[in-house]
Design a protein that fits this description.
Elements lengths: L3 E4 L2 E4 L25 E2 L15 E4 L13 E6 L16 E6 L8 E9 L2 E6 L4 E7 L2 E7 L6 E6 L8 E9 L2 E9 L6 E10 L3 E3 L6 E6 L5 E9 L3 H7 L5 H16 L2 E4 L2 H14 L4 E2 L6 E3 L5 E3 L5 E2 L3 H4 L3 H8 L1 H17 L19 H10 L10 H9 L6 H20 L3 H12 L1 H8 L21 H4 L7 H8 L2 H13 L24 H12 L1 E7 L3 E10 L12 E2 L4 H11 L1 E5 L2 E6 L6 E5 L5 E7 L7 E7 L2 E2 L4 E3 H6 L1 E8 L20
Parallel strand pairs: 3-25, 29-33
Antiparallel strand pairs: 1-2, 1-7, 4-5, 5-7, 6-11, 7-8, 8-9, 9-10, 10-17, 11-16, 12-13, 13-14, 14-17, 15-16, 18-28, 19-22, 20-21, 23-24, 26-27, 27-32, 28-29, 30-31, 30-33
InterPro entries: 6-hairpin_glycosidase_sf, GH-type_carb-bd, GH92_N, Glyco_hydro_92, PNGase
Pfam families: Glyco_hydro_92, Glyco_hydro_92N
Subunit structure: Monomer.
Length: 688
């Protein structure tokens, strides 16, 4: 098991390797990627695929994910976080600080060594305390070592959160355990979620009277090594206690590493070793959420707090407004067995209660759920079925609440209305289908009013005309469901291409946020798809210029660098990973495919960053993407074959990928201006 480690706070690979093992991609993951400054808002936490339990240091000063790679001072360890999100982060519950002597405040934890990888985290402090942490599913072990002969204990703050989101808690303590629940606010403080927990201590401890939800525990006797066995649950304390294991960090870490390899092994990439490591580090980021909230016996909590039971698995913890564009479609391809239950869980929100951000009874931390209708349509068209008739009335109610008040909202809501129209058609609700199709068609009026004229002085200004994020230039491309109509609104294909050319030539594109991340692929709908092939490679693997940032600013000092780098300060500054949205964009592009439009089961093609890509599906089928003339400079596709037959179109369907087979792409450093220009996959709201 390789680990990324620091010595004297400098990152390095603990065991060098010339390439990534096909059977051990987890050892290639750098969990410190995106953990410094405002560059991703990520953490090196010990975590498990789609697991709620996520243990990492809380460093000073506070950042969105609770961790700063360059910080030396550690305040303690917290046990959950939503990776990569804004609003000063979310989670950070149950802070545990080891201390020496009599007063916890007099112990300063200064980092001296650190190592981490998928499922584990280790740290040593200058005062001789060290901690070895491992996580597997909802089980965690924290093994603390104290200096010989020292007096020591633990300070526990049950009201700690990353962003002042504490609501309430209850706990019960005895000589060797602490159990209870914590209520905290979800991301951006919109809702409330409850976490049940159990902590067992390997040595007897004495609890001192608590005040303001804070406890001091003193270890009795001469136990220099104390292990904490943790379990969490969204259901109740009994399930949390059942999850707590005491078989040691090594066994837990080994089990976690095995499962991480199964998860990351869904796709194998062949090529440059450093690019492989970056790829698996970013794939790792895409499978942190949503969270598996059901227990082995099928019990789980609905978004109304009710106790439910399923014979499948249930998920919660959504960042759909961000990651419906990339991360969720990636889950549908790589993990279709899991994704079937994720889709059912999204549909279930309409049964038990769904709000754009969060309810007051969430079973886990969560962010926001706008565009769930788009995800449901996309899933249905890919073959993932759910009780659409049973939730039709709730879908309609949400459709009636769509917001068209601002220019960006008008386009976003039109997309939802388009998806809802198709969902109602599937449900047999023809009148409602026609109603929402008419609403979706009105996007043209909004577009003509605010987005057609690009000569106005405010079109390159962030938040102009009340936009939430982005500029008029960036949002004007957001009509993914009717690109044919958009081209006509612009004035025809030639003007559409000219305006896209201007947009990218003048660095008006913003990869620090999601509103226009589909724009580099929008030449694919035209007679010049090679321009999208060039842009895909540029933003995934080459130096770019970025003037726009995720703090809604247009900087005088631009970002000039590669966006995706395998280091703590990766990404454009201020760029959040947003629950796997941005890392998912890279994973798709590196593999050579990208969703054409979420809601349509098709993927555009580009030159992959690897000589070979192999998707290993749960049903045993494989889809291979091979290349001819692969080289770093060969970024254009000149011809293609699918299962040995010539392929002249620049797209594949989801069904073609899942069926298995081989796609071969012939590459060149010069574009072929004929390939992929016929039989274009172009969305058309008027098409059936």
């Amino acid at each position: 098991m390789a680990a990324y480690a620091i010595a004297l706070l400098q990152p390095q690979v603990a065991s060098a390797q010339s390439g990534v093992s096909a059977t051990d991609p987890a050892s290639a993951v750098n969990v410190f990627l995106g953990t410094s400054g405002d560059h991703g808002q990520l953490s090196p936490a010990a975590s498990y695929p789609f697991g709620m339990l996520s243990i990492a240091p809380q460093t000073y000063p506070n950042l969105h994910a609770g961790y700063e790679h360059n910080a030396k001072k550690v305040l303690g360890f917290t046990h959950n976080r939503f990776e990569g999100v804004g609003c000063m982060g979310s989670g950070g519950n149950i802070l545990i600080k080891p201390f020496l002597g009599d007063d916890p405040d007099e112990t300063e934890l200064l980092k001296s060594t650190e190592a981490a990888g998928p499922g584990f985290y280790r740290i040593g402090f200058e005062n001789g305390i060290s901690s070895n942490i491992a996580v597997h599913k909802n089980s965690g072990i924290e093994a603390y070592s104290f200096p010989t002969g020292s007096k020591h204990g633990f300070y526990i703050n049950l009201s700690h959160t990353l962003a002042n989101g504490f609501v309430a808690e209850e706990h019960t303590a005895n000589a060797n355990s602490l159990r209870g629940w914590v209520d905290a606010r979800t991301t951006c403080g919109a809702g409330v979620y409850r976490t049940y927990y159990y902590i067992g201590f390997s040595a007897p401890v004495k609890f001192e009277a608590d005040a303001d939800h804070k406890l001091t525990l003193r270890v009795e006797g001469t136990n220099n090594n104390v292990t904490l066995s943790l379990g969490i649950s969204s259901v109740d304390v009994a399930h949390a206690q059942a999850s707590a294991k005491n078989n040691g960090t090594e066994a837990l870490q080994t089990a976690s590493h095995t499962d991480w390899n199964k998860t990351l092994g869904a796709v194998k990439v062949s090529g440059d070793a450093e690019t492989q490591k970056l790829f698996y580090s970013l794939l790792y980021r895409t499978v942190q959420s949503p969270y598996l909230i059901s227990e082995a016996d099928g019990t789980y909590r609905g978004t109304d707090g009710s106790l439910q039971k399923t014979n499948k698995t249930a998920y919660n913890g959504w960042s759909i407004w961000d990651n419906y564009r990339t991360q969720l479609p990636l889950m549908s391809l790589l993990y279709p067995d899991r994704y079937a239950d994720m889709v059912t869980s999204i549909a279930s929100m309409y049964k038990y209660g769904k709000k754009d951000y969060a309810t007051q009874h969430e079973p886990s931390n969560t962010v926001r759920t706008e565009h769930a209708m788009v995800v449901l349509l996309d899933a249905w068209r890919k073959g993932f079925k759910f009780d659409i008739k049973g939730i039709a009335d709730s879908l309609i109610a949400e459709g009636n609440r769509l917001d068209f008040a601002k220019p960006d909202k008008a386009l976003e809501s039109s997309y939802d209305a388009w998806a809802l129209s198709h969902l109602m058609d599937i449900a047999g609700r023809k009148a409602e289908s026609a109603k929402f199709r008419a609403i979706a068609l009105k996007y043209k009026d909004y577009w003509e009013k605010d987005f057609k004229d690009v000569t106005k002085r405010d079109v390159d200004r962030m938040q102009a005309r009340g936009l939430y994020q982005g500029t008029i230039w960036q949002y004007r491309w957001f009509v993914p469901f009717d690109v044919k109509g958009l081209i006509n609104l612009v004035g025809g294909e030639q003007k559409y291409i000219e305006q896209l050319d201007y947009f990218f030539a003048n660095d008006l594109y913003n990869h620090a946020n999601e509103p226009d991340i589909q724009a580099p692929f929008m030449y694919n709908m035209t007679s010049q798809p090679w321009k999208s092939q060039a842009l895909a490679h540029k933003y995934a693997a080459d130096t770019v210029v970025q003037y726009y940032f995720n703090d809604n600013s247009r900087g005088i000092d631009p970002f000039v660098n590669r966006i995706y780098r395998n280091q703590p300060d990766t990404y454009v500054r201020t760029m959040d990973d947003d629950g796997g949205a941005m890392s998912g964009w890279y994973v798709f592009t590196a593999c050579g495919i990208m969703p054409a439009c979420v809601g349509e089961p098709a993927f555009y093609l580009n030159a992959p960053l690897f000589s070979g890509v192999k998707f290993n599906f749960p049903d045993g089928k494989q889809f291979n993407i091979t290349t001819t003339n692969f080289a770093a400079k060969n970024i254009y596709i000149t011809s293609a074959t699918l299962n040995g037959k010539l392929l002249n179109r620049n797209w594949l369907t989801y069904a073609e990928l899942r069926k298995g087979g081989t796609l071969n792409l012939a590459l060149s450093d010069k574009p072929d201006k004929n390939w992929g220009t016929k039989d274009q996959y172009i969305t058309d709201i008027n098409a059936k």
